[in-house]
Amino acid sequence: MGERGMGERGYDRTVRLVAAGLAALVFLFLIAPLVVLVVSSFNRAGSMAFPPSGLSLRWYAEVLGSPDWQVSFRLSGVLVLLVVPTTVIIGTLAAYGLTQGSFPGRRLLQGLALSPLMVPEIIVALGLLYYFHGVGLINSVTGLWLAHSLVALPFVVRAVMVSAAQLDPALERAALSLGAGRTRVFLTVTLPLLRPGILAGAILAAVTSLGEVAVTALVAGANTTTVPLRIFSAVQYQLDPSMAAVSTLLMAASVVVMVVADRFARISEAL
């Protein structure tokens, strides 16, 4: 019996080691392209060769000092500032109603709210192209705002629904029994409980807007070139470390925001 137990423990240990090794390989496969990109952004030479022949910050200085890149950075920043509050407000209300409400067609509305996640993005982009062309929103900030909001909204709805599904209805009933109105209960009891999902949805919306290419390429124009679209256009004609520098800046900003938000709101629980 003892030998059998030792054999089982040895087998379990082997399985854990194999699983850990496979997980490490998968993680390495995912992180390796990003590491190469970051290191290449410091290349002193004018090529994307890896490993770099020397280290330099010249490409960061070139990107940050370029008027064209500055315009794209400002536009992408404005879009994030417009998309995040729009999707958070609409997505939070929709997720709460779809999770806690009980009405005919609720399942259908849930599927409709999440449908952009199940439709190829190029199809959504083509639909927006035809529609925006008819209403005159092509090559406009308003058109990009609406397009990015449409693409990012399902991520917000999904993240907030995770938090809304964990709500304890007894807390809201207790607040109502103490004389608080429904609006006050929602603002002072429900919203704080939904905070992890709301922040997670806001970050997902910001990252989605910052990285959006397919929809942007069809509804933007010469005067509305976002950072991802400028990267996509530039790499078709030249591939130098400046593209890696821009990508590294975007990744660094995303990582900092996610770490800070998770530190104060534990958004990882809603992802």
In short:
The protein is mainly alpha-helical. The chain has helices at residues 2-40, 58-65, 67-100, 106-113, 121-135, 141-164, 169-177, 182-211, 214-219, 227-234, 241-265. It is built from eleven helices and no strands.
Question: Which descriptors would you attach to this protein?
Answer:
76% helix; mainly alpha; 271 residues; 11 helices
Question: Care to describe what's here?
Answer:
By secondary structure, the chain is mostly helical. It has eleven helices and no strands. Helix 6 packs across helix 8. The mean pLDDT is 82.
What is the straight-line distance between the termini? 44 Å
The low-pLDDT segments are: none
Question: What is the residue-averaged pLDDT?
Answer: 82
Instruction: Compute the CA-based radius of gyration.
Output: 24 Å
List the helices and strands and how they pair.
Blueprint (H helix, E strand, L loop, with lengths): L1 H39 L17 H8 L1 H34 L5 H8 L7 H15 L5 H24 L4 H9 L4 H30 L2 H6 L7 H8 L6 H25 L6
Helix pairs in contact: 2-11, 3-6, 3-8, 6-8, 7-8, 8-11
